Each structure stands twice: as C-alpha cells, then as structure tokens.
Amino acid sequence: MAFRFPQIILFLLAAILFCPSSYAEQKPTAAQEARKTAVEVAVEGMSRAAVAGPTKISLGDKATLNLPEGFTWIPAKEAAVFMREIGNYVDDEYFYGLVFK
Fold first, then answer.
1. What total number of domains does the chain contain?
2. Residue 92 domain-assigned?
3. Most buried one in 7, 55, 62, 94, CB count within 10 A?
4. Full residue range of the structural domain in which residue 56 is found
C-alpha cells in the first residue's frame, strides 16, 4: 500500500507554488520613501527634545504640568512636526506638546 498525501496538503502546496506574483513584496515608491524619511526625521527631533519626568513643564502662561516619573514630554515644536507628518492637524495656539508613558 503506497503512502498518499492528504488532499489538504496537496491543495496547500498547489496554492503556494501557483500563487500570483502580485502578492510578492513590492518596493516602496519614491513618495513613500520620502514620507518615511520625513517621519523618521521628526521622530529623531522628538527624541532629542524629549524631557523625562519627574519634572515641572511650563505650558506657556496657561499652566504648569507636573510630569511624573515614567512619563516623557515632547515640546510643542517637535511634537507638531511629527503630528503633521503622520497626517494630523495641529492648532499651534492650543497645542503644547505630547506626553508618553
């Protein structure tokens, strides 16, 4: 008695071997690369400007933020660049930065 592959295994092998090449990984376009680079630059700017807690952060003449330990604050200028690069609207009058844990 000869060994026979189960039908499901034969089906999966056929699907893998005859899969259209459109599913293959495609190289990003120049626009996608430029956007990726712009986001990376924004993230690097945020990393350089990051302020780790615990500390007090002055939010202009509006308030003081008591940033606890384990949290990081990104100043408005650097945070706004990042937010815009990922497609968000930023109102400079009311945007004071980002806080991450």
1. 1
2. yes
3. 55
4. 50-101
- What H or E segment, with its residue span, contains residue 7? helix 7-17
Q: Can you list the pairs that 66-70 forms with residues at least 24 positions away whose Cβ atoms lie under 8 Å?
A: 67/99, 70/101
Tens digit of each residue's pLDDT, the chain (101 residues): 455 546 666 666 666 666 665 556 677 788 777 777 888 999 999 999 999 999 999 998 889 999 999 999 999 999 999 999 999 999 999 999 999 99
Q: Which two tokens stand for residue 75?
A: 């100043």
The answer to whether residue 77 sits within a structural domain is yes
**Has residue 87 been placed in a domain?**
yes
| 10 lies in some domain | no
pTM of the prediction? 0.65
